[in-house]
Design a protein that fits this description.
A: 6-stranded mixed beta sheet; 4-stranded antiparallel beta sheet; 6 helices; about 25% strand; B: about 280 residues; alpha+beta; about 70% helix; rod-shaped
């Protein structure tokens, strides 16, 4: 049974891709509320597959995935939708919606919240300010730089107080000021008590010193 | 924004963000419905014309010379009591002679001591009664009446007319069915294209927790909108075209307002089904 403190738990997960190549072979992971875990893995090691299993886009061959104590079952769309509303995704399969304005991107998770429009607008304004996107609110997200897109996704991932953040390659392709800016935001989120699972290819990332660290090796975490 | 506000905004957004695709979808459905309307109007007009011609059909029953003039009313009564008989006119020997004279331009019987022309009954029929089978049966029944000598009726013509009527009806039914299938496929395809242009948004919304109903409703609305407006505009065009169209003695017949309303509702339902099928195939 999943632990009550776990926002996310994977138990003995076995998963193969469509070509039959085994990606995970007895993978176990436990992410408690308010903690951050960073998983390192080279390209092709299964970082995106891990995200897909967590959000129920794919099913493991065996083993189980639990989100907030509930078993994740691919195909049960209504239940999955409820679970996904508690997840903020950044990078990987999560991307900004190019044709929507920045503020509409950030507003997307709030669509499913039963809150007043006034309250929602305030949250969006606050997120735009917090992530330094105030001047880009009316621009289409497709026109942004890579760094700004990461910031939009971070704003979107936190605007509805999502209890779990899945972050895939947050610093890939970024350099200079924007890289430091994104790293700073991630540190702040970690310090703010967000539960975060960060997937990255580079083992040199040390932007959250207090995070637990694992390496994806031969389908397991080491 | 509320989910309903978003659905309405995206529904109109789908239409305006890709105006050429929207126009293409609308026009292709419009043309299909226009073709359907023309087939429908043609069918009604052809049926009405056929019924009109059939209602003009008459049988002429010739009485033999042995029937005394005093017995003719009895024969007429026997004929009038038969099923399907509408109006009946007695053509006397004198009237027959007059008709013949008018037809030929001269009185061919001039100089003869007697008028050899027979008396006859010209019978017309109640509406919707006549078929070739009934006409044959009626002719047999008339022949059995004492005093009836000969019967003149266009049996072959009616049989051929019925055959062509059935042929036209079957063709229009087939055409209508094909058009409806094309409308459904077109609706599905339009919505699939529309969904594909928004695939990134749909996928991301799914990942953010949008449920299936939330995602499908704008596309279903789109399917209903295209189909309903195309059907309604096609009717307007058909109706207005008929005002300037004349077919000689043939009046163009249109369905009633209620039937047109039902037709538009059916178009909306087809659009709904098309939209649902299209978006389900895309997500």
């Amino acid at each position: 049974m999943p632990g009550s403190k776990a926002a996310l738990e994977l138990v003995e997960v076995v998963y193969a891709d469509i070509h039959g190549r085994k990606i995970f072979d007895g993978l176990n992971l436990n992410l408690n509320y308010g903690t951050t875990t960073i998983i390192f893995g080279p390209t092709g090691s299964g970082k995106t597959s891990l995200t897909e299993l967590i959000i129920g886009a794919e099913s493991p061959e065996s083993g189980q995935v639990f989100l907030f104590g509930q078993k994740v079952k691919a195909g049960r769309l209504v239940r999955l939708a409820g679970l996904r509303r508690k997840i903020g995704g950044v990078g990987g399969i999560f991307t900004p919606i190019s044709n929507l304005k920045v503020k509409d991107n950030i507003a997307a998770p709030l669509l499913f919240r039963r809150e007043s429009n006034f309250y929602k607008r305030n949250k969006i304004e606050k997120a735009l300010l917090d992530f330094g996107l105030k001047s880009r609110g009316d621009d289409p997200a497709g026109n942004l730089s890579q760094g700004e897109k990461i910031l939009v996704m971070l704003a979107r991932a936190t605007v509805a107080d999502q209890p779990l953040l899945l972050i895939d390659e947050p610093l890939a392709g970024l350099d200079g000021k924007i890289r430091e800016k994104v790293a700073e935001r991630l540190r702040r989120l970690a310090l703010g008590g967000h539960s975060m699972l960060i997937l990255t290819a580079s083992e040199n990332e040390s932007f959250i010193p207090e995070a637990r660290r694992f390496r994806l090796e031969e389908g397991k975490l080491a | 924004m509320s989910p309903l506000g978003y659905i309405i905004k995206r529904f109109f957004g789908n239409l305006w963000e890709h105006p050429l695709a929207s126009l293409g979808s609308f026009l292709s459905l419009f043309l299909l419905y226009l073709l359907f309307d023309l087939a429908w109007v043609s069918s009604l007009t052809a049926t009405k014309y056929y019924d009109q011609k059939i209602s003009e059909l008459e049988i002429e029953v010739f009485l033999n010379d042995e029937v005394a003039d005093s017995v003719v009313p009895v024969v007429m009564e026997a004929v009038a009591s038969m099923e399907g008989v509408g109006e009946m006119e007695l053509v006397s020997r004198e009237a027959a002679r007059s008709y013949l004279g008018n037809l030929m331009g001269v009185d061919l019987l001039e100089g003869l001591d007697i008028n050899p022309l027979p008396r006859s009954l010209v019978i017309s029929f109640t509406p919707d009664y006549l078929t070739s089978a009934r006409l044959d049966a009626l002719a047999d029944d008339l022949r059995r009446i004492k005093g009836v000598d000969e019967i003149l009726f266009p049996g072959n013509w009616l049989e051929k007319a019925e055959y062509f009527k059935k042929l036209i009806r079957d063709f229009l039914l087939l055409l209508g069915a094909l058009i409806l299938i094309a409308v459904v496929l077109n609706s599905v395809h339009s919505v699939i294209l529309s969904a594909r242009t928004r695939l990134e948004e749909l996928v991301q919304l799914q990942l953010l927790g949008a449920g299936p109903v939330f995602l499908t409703i704008p596309f279903i609305l789109e399917g209903v909108f295209y189909s309903l407006t195309a059907a309604a505009v096609a009717w307007l065009v058909t109706q207005n075209a008929a005002r300037i169209l004349t077919l000689g003695e043939v009046a163009v017949i249109f369905p009633g307002v209620t039937e047109i309303v039902y037709f538009c509702l059916a178009a909306a339902i087809i659009g709904l089904l098309g939209g649902y099928m299209g978006v389900r195939r895309s997500l």
